[in-house]
Design a protein that fits this description.
The complex is a heterodimer of chains A (232) and B (257). Chain A has 232 residues and is mostly helical. Chain A has helices spanning 11-41, 47-59, 62-73, 78-87, 95-119, 123-131, 136-147, 149-164, 168-173, 184-193, 197-221, 224-230. Chain A is built from 12 helices and no strands. A 6-stranded mixed sheet of chain B has the order 7-8-9-3-10-11, with helices on both faces. Chain B has a 5-stranded antiparallel sheet with strand order 2-1-4-5-6, covered by helices on one side. Classes of the chains: A mainly alpha (232), B alpha/beta (257). The A-B interface holds A 122, 124-125, 127-136, 142-143, 146-147, 231 and B 81-83, 108-116, 118, 120, 122-126, 135-136, 139, 181-182, 185.
Chain lengths: 232, 257
């Protein structure tokens, strides 16, 4: 039963979650562009294997992905060992580890909208650009990217929102360290475990509001009238 | 790179110009599409396998590529432009070799300097008319770029449209923009894929006149694809008639038609 007592919102976990989501969305924007380009235009016969690998986080239980990432980031793995030798501490249970885990977890939510928007660019425009002397890089920068703006915004918003809502991977890779790895979704879980439903409802409502706003943006961009207004 | 030089027959109009005589387009193209190959969708009229097999020497001036749908007209242009790779053969203009299967030469499409006006025009929808025209001459210094753009906008009577997007102008105006965008690059060869198909009579005549004027000043080979007999008779210095990927007749339009 909900308590009548008003419990203040834990801004620390919300700010940490927004910081994590913003960093992951920014890094994913850079990483997902070349991957999406390759997936769209490569004629490699085994490309479907790469597509399946990128899409794995959509179907894989987050705890399974989190487990593999925990092993990969641990001190016994080459990556974890290298990181420890440079920084003096392991990647697991740190904010940096959380960023790496979240990048893998949200990768398909950036790559797939990017690839879909690249594929929707008329191939005649790409051919016209080439016959006018433009290299593949210039065609990508000046024709494909500008004509894919709605898909780029949608992919970035989705990867941001998806990172905000992640739970299993965060718990496995980051643990539950206040101010370092405790995100909003873990905060809600903790509050429910402590039967503190009032605090949980406020935290959940804030997460719901942000996620709804972001998804509204994504769907608005898929409607031509809003997209035309935005890019006017 | 060793390149075979051919004894090209000089065009009557340019026989005094050594430079222009070197601009003869030499084509030997073989390209096979298998029925099961998705690439065969380019030739929808051919339910079975299809083979393009073309050998021709084309002088500067307008050559009409005439034939029914599925004859291989667009496929021929795409091979010349570098958008499709022939299985065998050689494509060269003067001493510039674009493709030579035997010598393993293949110049990338963006390095060929070939003007191509697509059937659907392919104007960049997010760029203004002026930016569309400037797109192919971006490497020029700004003063020269502005001058060339202004000249071509004036000569195609589209200066008043410079700030507009392609969606904000008429079909005939779009056609002129597409033609101007290809010609401003000073191409060594011009490929036109049914550029006047969607136009009414007067608009078509005005554009044909624009093309004739430009061609009089810049003697380069122009390949003009059409399936309209009217355009063959009105435009061409010569015509190549294609059917099932092969040349079945060629010569002066009046004789061939």
């Amino acid at each position: 039963m909900l308590s009548a007592k008003v419990v203040p919102m834990d801004w620390q976990s919300l700010l940490l979650t927004i910081r994590l989501s913003a960093i992951v969305a920014a890094i994913l924007f850079v990483i997902a562009l070349p991957i999406a380009y390759w997936i769209t235009y490569s004629r490699w016969r085994w490309k479907f294997l790469a597509e399946a690998a990128v899409g794995l986080p959509i179907v894989l239980p987050p705890t399974v992905l989190g487990f593999y990432l925990l092993v990969a980031l641990g001190a016994r793995s080459p990556l974890g060992h290298l990181w420890q030798s440079i920084t003096g501490h392991t990647l697991a249970f740190t904010f940096q580890g959380l960023v790496i885990g979240s990048i893998f977890y949200s990768l398909p939510f950036a790559v797939q909208p990017f690839a879909a928007s690249f594929a929707s660019v008329d191939c005649r425009l790409i051919a016209a650009s080439a016959t006018l002397g433009a290299s593949k890089l210039r065609t990508f920068r000046e024709i494909i990217l500008p004509l894919s703006k709605p898909g780029l915004v949608a992919g970035t918003a989705l990867s941001f929102a998806h990172t905000m809502g992640e739970f299993g991977v965060v718990l496995m890779v980051g643990g539950n360290i206040p101010g370092v790895t405790r995100t909003v979704s873990i905060e809600v879980y903790d509050q429910v475990q402590a039967l503190n439903y009032s605090a949980a409802s406020i935290t959940a409502l804030v997460l719901l509001g942000i996620s709804f706003s972001l998804l509204s943006l994504v769907y608005a961009l898929n409607r031509r009238v809003f997209a035309a207004w935005l890019w006017k | 790179m060793a390149v075979e030089m051919r004894d090209f027959a000089p065009n009557r109009a340019i026989e005094s110009s050594a430079e222009a005589a070197s601009a003869v387009l030499s084509l030997q193209i073989r390209k096979r599409f298998d029925a099961a190959d998705p690439a065969n969708a380019a030739e929808p009229a051919n339910k079975d396998s299809f083979e393009l097999d073309i050998a021709a020497e084309l002088s500067p001036g307008i050559t009409i590529i005439f034939g029914p749908s599925g004859a291989g007209k667009t496929t021929l242009l795409e091979c010349i432009a570098g958008l499709l790779r022939p299985d065998r053969g050689r494509i060269a203009i003067g001493n510039r070799v674009f493709f030579d299967h035997a010598l393993k030469v293949e110049v990338h499409v963006h390095q060929r300097r070939i003007g191509y006006v697509f059937q659907d025009l392919a104007l960049f929808p997010h760029l203004s008319v002026e930016k569309n025209i400037e797109y192919g001459i971006r490497e020029l210094n700004p003063a020269l770029r502005v001058e060339k753009t202004r000249t071509i906008l004036d000569s195609f009577r589209i200066s008043s449209l410079r700030e507009r997007k392609p969606s904000q102008i008429s079909g005939g105006e779009r056609q002129r923009v597409a033609l101007a965008r290809s010609l401003v690059t000073d191409p060594c060869l011009l490929l036109l894929d049914e550029p006047l198909a969607a136009l009414d009579g007067p608009t078509k005549s005005a554009l044909v006149e624009d093309l004739r004027i430009w061609n009089a000043a810049h003697r380069i080979p122009i390949l003009y694809v059409t399936h309209s007999r009217e355009e063959v008779l009105a435009l061409g210095d010569r015509v190549l008639m294609l059917q099932y990927g092969k040349i079945i007749a060629q010569g002066q339009p009046q004789k061939v038609i």
